[in-house]
User: Fold this.
Amino acid sequence: MGKALIIGAGGVASVVVHKCVQNSDVFEEICIASRTVSKCDALKEKLDGGKTKIHTAQVDADNTEEVIELIKAFGPDVVINVALPYQDLTIMDACLATGVHYVDTANYEPPETAKFEYKWQWAYKEKFEKAGLTALLGSGFDPGVTGVFTAHAQKHEFDEIHYIDIVDANAGDHGYHFATNFNPEINIREITANGRYWKEGKWVETAPLEKKEVYNLPEIGPKDIYLLYHEELESLAKNIKGLKQIRFWMTFSEKYLTHLKVLENVGMTSIEPIEFEGQMIQPIHFLKAVLPDPASLGPRTKGKTNIGCIIRGLKDGQEKTYYVYNVCDHEECYNEVGSQAISYTTGVPAMIGAMLVMNGEWRKPGVWNVEDFNPDPFMDALNKWGLPWQESHNPELLDLDLDAKEL
Ligand code: NDP
Assistant:
């Protein structure tokens, strides 16, 4: 069907490339481009020889002109941005300059402040509309599948959705004292920020990891879950009409949190630049350099993830509850594509989002979040491409009231 340019060659990109190659009827030609071209070449070497033709290129995606040149040289139908959130705007600019559709998995973040907001990317809506191009934002798992799950519930289960609790559990064990499952800098910036959730039109703020509950997850069992801010809360609060409250919860082990606390207390998680041996560095960059590369966790990680949405609302005037979730096994992911489940659960939806933009099912001019589209083809594709979903109409529920202050 067409050509995709994949920017980034890390943990998530590796899964995207594997899945595009499996889906060669759609992805006839791909170019893997990243800052370190040897990582792109290693992926090509592993996967070359099938129906999908693979190219590689070196690119600094902070530089719009470089991305424009690469797009012009390769001529893709879509760019799949699985580099870092800092590159979102430069890559979107390059797509506009060359007339190519855009897909990513994480919202833009300014490097100097840990701010998770869609405002910068939503500001491109008119430009993409005028250019007749589709920008699909946040087509990973969370954000991504969580938005598709919500749109599916809205379409097939509810007349009105009132409450959503997104629960992201990772019961995987990699055997290290401390490691993050995806890019450590992005991961730690997210966790050490204040918690926030949306209630009755207002944001309610908590101290970082202040609110803890225990939730009994299917196929995983009871886990401590902590309230975090997560970027899909912003788009879902805007897009789901009649919503009263939406929260996001993530599991952390005590061991993980103890290590994180120590690192935070000694200043290692800070993004404030400091002078070190005559050079300005952000402590978190140094920390990233000494932590295990998330891509190396694959062969060591055992156990499962479970990510899903617990939803309450009305159907035909009656109160109703619904839970839709995916369980993913780290070892099965590794056996299939050589990556652990966190990269897998992000890379598969990125490929699916790009496929739906390419085949026209999810194509409309503008800048969109996943819940803006018909969830049906995405839900079908999840079952087909390795992330089957399950549902319950009688799930365990979380307490709706938290004693926290409004912003
Ligand atoms: P990695 O750190 O493993 O990979 C990032 C890749 O981007 C690396 O190959 C890196 O190159 C490349 N890169 C960084 N800066 C540039 C640049 N300026 N130009 C070109 N390439 C660059 O990250 P992950 O694969 O774990 O994460 C990828 C994305 O997925 C992130 O945006 C992350 O936030 C998102 N994500 C989304 C999730 C979701 O569910 N929605 C879940 C997990 C992640 P180099 O090798 O040179 O460093």
